[in-house]
Amino acid sequence: MAPVSAVLTDIEGTTSAIAFVKETLFPFAERALDAFLDAHGAEPEVAACLDAVRQAARPGEEPRAALRRWMAEDAKIGPLKTLQGMIWRDGFLSGEVTGHLWPDVAPCLRAWSRAGIGLYVYSSGSVAAQKLLFGHSPAGDLTGLFSGFFDTAVGGKREAASYAAIAQGLHRPAGEILFLSDVAEELDAAAAAGLQVCQLVRRQDGTQPSPRHPQAPDFPAVAGRFRLPAPSLSAGAAA
After folding, report:
1. What is the average pLDDT across 209-238?
2. Angstrom distance (rounded) from CA 105 to CA 14
3. What is the helix, strand, coil percentage profile of the chain, to 5?
4. Which tens digits make up the pLDDT trace of 90-147?
5. Which sign does the torsion angle of CA 123, 128, 133, 135 carry?
6. What strands lie across the sheet with 148-150, from one edge to the other?
7. Hey, what domains does the chain have and what are their CATH numbers?
């Protein structure tokens, strides 16, 4: 097993509670959708998203109806994710929404960053939404710890080609990149591309352990299993 030079992490179920995304972020975006589109629908960025919605929607389906259907289906569709990210941005900036992060995550991220480990995010949520979550975390603004953010513009999270493309973009051997996720099928795809993988099995989220991959209950356990720097007790308390 090669030494890890970069960590690529999922968000939902890995750094943050699944319940936060499903019970806080998604409902907020659904409630705010009409008001957001009424206020910003003519702005170029939003208008471009709505054009993309029209192209992807069913024949004759209005954009707002398509967006609500996709929300109900939890569809991983680019313009939906982009619009959700814009709505969440307004919520974070207004203080209506605050982020969630498991308390073990920030101390490890800081320790790994100090040690020169490259940190990256790969999530089905848009890059803008990822930056909002880490920028408004309970541990402060963590975006400066990361060297890059990836969403499904690079490809689906259950496709090996996506992880190969990320490794190529990072200019690192795939075997030096450790991917963290709670979803076994995502880990399957990353492993097929040559990445090291570890499943986060957080009891609070009811994650089902996969016998196909190494497992850890939290980020300190990841550090121990893959010989990554661990935060000191004082640093962990401060974070």
Report:
1. 85
2. 9
3. 55, 10, 35
4. 999 898 888 899 999 999 999 999 999 999 999 998 898 899 899 999 899 999 999 9
5. positive
6. 148-150, 118-122, 6-9, 177-181, 196-200, 215-216
7. 6-17+100-238 (3.40.50.1000), 20-94 (1.10.720)
Rounded-to-integer distance, Cα 165 and Cα 68, Å:
31
Amino acid of residue 128: A
- Quick check: helix, strand or coil at residue 90? helix
- Considering the chain, what percentage of its residues have pLDDT values greater than 90? 83
* Amino acid in the structure at residue 193: A
What is the Cα–Cα distance from 182 to 206, expressed in whole angstroms? 10
What sign for the dihedral angle of Cα 54, 149, 145, 196? positive
Distance of CA 219 to the CA centre of its chain: 15
> H-type helices in the chain, by residue range?
18-20, 26-40, 44-56, 63-73, 78-94, 105-114, 127-135, 160-170, 184-192, 219-225, 233-238
* Whether pLDDT at 238 is above 90: no
Residue among 9, 18, 19 nearest 199 (CA): 9
Q: What is the pLDDT of residues 168-201, one digit of tens each?
A: 999 999 999 999 999 999 999 999 999 999 999 9
- The amino acid present at 86, given as its one-letter code, is M
For the chain, the average pLDDT equals 93
Residue 235 pLDDT > 70 = no
Q: Is the pTM of the predicted complex or chain greater than 0.70?
A: yes
- Element holding 123 (H helix, E strand): none
Six-digit token string for 202? 């957080």
The span from the CA of 227 to the CA of 86, in Å, is 38
